Structure prediction request, 55 residues.
Amino acid sequence: MDILWIVLVAGGPIVLGAAMAYALLTRRRLRGSERNAQRAATERLYREQSPGPRT
Prediction:
């Protein structure tokens, strides 16, 4: 039973680290046009949510 506990305690961080490394290595970067579209959509959302100029 002690060996199972050691495997779980040691294996958990290894599996978690491997999953994080896999996610970081396989994420896709945005192309220039996608990045511009994302910025434009973000600005549009902020403009829609802003209450307008304060006087």
